[in-house]
Design a protein that fits this description.
The chain is mostly helical and 108 residues long. It has helices at residues 14-28, 32-36, 56-76, 78-99. Helix 1 (14-28) runs antiparallel to helix 3 and helix 3 (56-76) packs across helix 4. The chain is globular and about 40 Å long.
């Protein structure tokens, strides 16, 4: 008899891995990162800019940290994972613009 692990411990949560794969695809698709970066006046990129990265190192460390932490959090509550992703995806670009006005574009 098999039992389902309590609180999702021991199971793999796919959403963080899917988002990491999208970031990898955006980096290697020519022109995608530049098109997705957030700049003042390009408000439609608020959600997409998180998939854009400046360098392979930037991408690697972001994807590794995001996938590891995301899988850990998602295993306990997929709903809270998506809530945190949604809120932070909206908050980060605006915080960059408000708190670091000298930054003219943002990626990942």
């Amino acid at each position: 008899m098999t039992t389902t692990p309590k609180n999702g411990v021991g199971r793999i949560c796919a959403p963080p891995l899917l988002l990491a794969v999208l970031a990898l695809a955006a980096f290697y698709l020519p022109g995608a990162s530049a098109a997705m970066q957030f700049e003042p006046g390009r408000w439609w990129n608020v959600l997409f800019c998180h998939f854009a990265h400046w360098t392979a190192d930037h991408l690697l460390w972001d994807v590794l940290a995001f996938a590891a932490l995301g899988m850990f959090c998602c295993r306990f509550s997929a709903g809270r994972f998506w809530l945190a992703i949604g809120l932070s995806a909206l908050a980060v670009p605006f915080a960059v613009i408000l708190l670091q006005p000298e930054i003219t574009s943002y990626r990942g």
